[in-house]
Specification:
Layout lengths: L1 H23 L2 H9 L2 H6 L1 H10 L2 H21 L4 H33 L2 H32 L2 H19 L16 H5 L6 H31 L4 H25 L7 H6 L2 H10 L2 H29 L5 H30 L1 H26 L1
Helix pairs in contact: 1-2, 1-6, 1-7, 1-8, 4-15, 5-6, 5-8, 6-15, 7-11, 7-14, 10-11, 10-14, 10-15, 10-16, 11-14, 13-14, 13-16, 15-16
């Protein structure tokens, strides 16, 4: 189901961003279209958290998928074209963004409730694999299909993927709808905050992965062009290898889950070693190889932090965890893109790397530094 959800979503988003880029010549506006689905969950975080804490997650998935299907079907038959259709589609993207955040977050809540603890990490890892496979497939199909299909046809195909996703959602088991953190204290129930210090620490490391994601978003263009002196073809190779590496990393996370005694901080430090080597060498072959290893470890770290968060959280804390994941992680990626992009423009890719290393070191060492200050 998550495969179909992300496949259709990314399939349409890429086509829309291409339409906006061709019509306006603005890479910023095209990027804004790709980021648009993240905004609704950020603005409506309290509503999302309340729904996840009080409603049956399987029912939430069905409502979200049915809403997305209805809106997409309207776009597929809307009797307008050109700019008017693009504007209507971008408006729908905002509503669908909240629906997609609901589907993915409610799925995590459902897995936490329905899957035995000993199988939870594996289930969450396969859910991540499904999302990545959908994103990769959507990206791979959108390019060739753009030349052959109209925008209306894209919406029609997305409607088919949503219809299939809704049918699968109807098969989801019913789960109990639990209250928030404290049913006797409605104000506390609405608070989107992690009380457990271990959960806060894990989520801080999770935000670090969002910072790396922002770096990678900038690096796929900057590293091959500015560090390696390549052109468009090398950027294409870099993008293709990146997609393969991240997908491979999700599978590598399966055996990594067995290393339960390995401190979370190890997974925060490990990706920095091949990244530093790749950027320092600055030659096409070794840099590509080192960067691929970085991305594999990057994805392993993401899955490990995600799974440890969901396994550590008590059932009543899971809605807060997934709400923060749906809101703060995208916000962290956007902030990172702005910072890393500015640094790369002003001082080059090595300066951007140094910023990533500095932030990673500070976040990883924060507990030790805090203990030193207390003494």
């Amino acid at each position: 189901m998550l495969f179909l959800n992300t496949l259709g979503s990314f399939f349409v988003l890429l086509r829309l961003s291409t339409e906006v880029s061709e019509a306006t010549g603005s890479g910023l506006l095209a990027g804004a279209v790709l980021s648009a689905p993240w905004l609704p969950a950020l603005l409506l975080a309290r509503l999302l958290n309340r729904a996840l804490g009080e409603r049956d997650p399987a029912r939430l998935v069905r409502i979200a998928e049915a809403t997305s299907l209805g809106l997409t079907a309207v776009l597929a038959v809307l009797p307008v074209s050109g700019t008017a259709l693009v504007v209507a589609a971008v408006s729908v993207v905002f509503v669908r963004g909240f629906c997609e955040a609901t589907t993915r977050s409610a799925t995590s809540v459902l897995l936490r409730q329905a899957v035995a603890e000993r199988r939870l990490n594996r289930a969450n890892t396969f859910a991540e694999i499904g999302k990545l496979a959908g994103t990769s497939t959507g990206a791979a199909v959108a390019g060739p299909a753009s030349a052959a299909l109209s925008l209306h046809a894209f919406f029609a195909l997305n409607g088919l993927t949503l219809a299939a996703s809704l049918l699968l959602a109807l098969l989801l088991p019913k789960a109990g709808a639990g209250p928030g953190a404290d049913a006797r204290n409605p104000e506390r129930r609405q608070r989107i905050r992690l009380e457990d210090p271990v959960l806060r620490r894990l989520f801080t490391l999770f935000l670090l992965v969002a910072f790396w994601q922002g770096f990678h978003t900038v690096a796929v263009n900057v590293v091959p062009r500015d560090l390696l002196g390549g052109g468009t073809s090398l950027v294409g190779v870099f993008v293709a290898l990146s997609a393969v590496a991240i997908f491979a990393g999700s599978f590598a996370a399966l055996p990594a889950q067995r290393l339960v005694r390995l401190p979370a901080e190890v997974w925060a430090i490990a990706p920095m070693l091949p990244l530093t080597a790749a950027m320092a060498i600055g030659r096409v072959g070794p840099t590509l190889a080192g960067y691929v290893v970085f991305l594999v470890l990057f994805e392993v770290a993401y899955v490990v932090f995600n799974n440890r968060l969901l396994a550590r959280a008590r059932p009543e804390e899971v809605p807060v965890v997934v709400t923060l994941r749906a809101t703060l992680l995208p916000a962290g990626v956007i902030a990172s893109i702005l910072l890393i992009g500015l640094l790369s423009d002003l001082a080059g890719p090595i300066a951007a790397l140094l910023a990533v290393l500095a932030v990673t070191a500070l976040v990883t060492a924060a507990p030790w530094l805090r203990r030193r200050r207390v003494r």
